Amino acid sequence: MTLQAAHPPTFTRRIADLAWPILIGQLAVIANGVIDTAMTSRFSATDLAALAVGASIYISIFVGLNGVLAALAPVIGQLYGAQRHAAIGAEVKQGVWLSLFLTLAGCLALLFPQPLLSLAHASPALTEKASLYLRILALALPATLGFRIYASLNTAVGRPKMVMALQIGALALKVPLNALFIFGGFGLPALGGPGCAVATGVTVWIMFLVSGVIVRTNPSYRAFGVFGTGFVKPSWAAQRELLKLGIPMGLSYLIEVTAFTFMALFIARLGDVAVAGHQVTANFGTVLYMIPLAIANATGTLVAQAIGARDFDTARRIGHSGIRLAAVVSVTMGCLVWLGRGAIVRAYTPNEAIIAAALPLYVFIAFYQLFDAIQVTTAFVLRAYKVVVVPTLMYAVALWGVGLGSGYLLGLNPFGNSPRALQGPSGFWMGNSVALALVGAGLFWYLRRVQREVQKTENATG
After folding, report:
1. How many angstroms from the chain centroid is the CA of residue 93?
2. How far apart, in whole angstroms, are the C-alpha atoms of residue 260 and residue 281?
3. Which domain holds residue 316?
4. pLDDT tens digits for 124-150?
């Protein structure tokens, strides 16, 4: 059945077929964080708190840089839909140059993290461990961004299964490496939380090198001209086009993640147990987020391919099918999380104090799933249309303004008038949940407007 002849149920199946390997691969990546949290919690509460702060900062930096590179996805997706395969290799090569420039900036931030760490008002021991964690990850950043280009290429052309296989293999390697570097052995010292960063560095470099060999030797990539087409210098025109898309996309990723980063930094003022409870909750929330994110990736890919083929009606219907699918799945998951919240928290840690700190936060994980699913899927559909500036502004106002602003007022209670139930970490989670509802509604309204304008332009020129 052709794309043009398909009906909405077929679109849903197409999205699901593309989404499941993306989801498994993403879960394998997130499982690295789950393993880090679970294993470090058995080393010491201070190391777990240092991991929470350090990981929040690293994720903010990585996600911002990764968001800029994400500009490759709609570009490659539209080229693939237009059957312009030879042009894909040129875009990938420009993406490699862009990743090198981004690596330089990212490594500087990771090597000198003191300005961000100072916001946590943490103890000297925690600050020292978090700094070491970040400096080790600076060595892993080039490979991490390099692998992201490979993943973007595969996803944009509808081939995510090899990415999934590499991510699962890296996870299998991460477990024994974590045990070795966190707890020590074979003559190596016990590093605690920073040992997670060493294990991560080893696995991401292996993934990156293997992915390069695959693209170089697998015949299925030959049509794209990534290898065998000569050395290409950075094209400033191409870089500007990528940055025109990538900077707003990177900012939107950064805004979304730093909402959680600053939550962790502010909550760290309340003590190690409070921030450890937040980390357990946030980590599981991130796991759940992978479900709508996979659907969003798949939906955005198929929408971009339809736009490249200039089939705008199909693009619109695929987008709406993806948003519906993400919403239904996320509501179901939210209900299951609420019913099983006790068992979930205890699977992370045996520490009763951390369990008591985490359990009240799971009410927010349960009910904001719908808002999160709508906003991320709608954002990816807008990116497929190469619409990125207005969504970024919406993220900034909602997540930084409403989310962090109200979270700070409720959670830290600077004026002494916050309801008792919302003081502490709960206040930050409430603020973030309200912000996600606002940005989800705003993005969906704007998508409908963009689709109407695109259809109007197509009717006028067709």
Report:
1. 23
2. 11
3. 8-461
4. 778 888 889 999 999 999 999 999 999
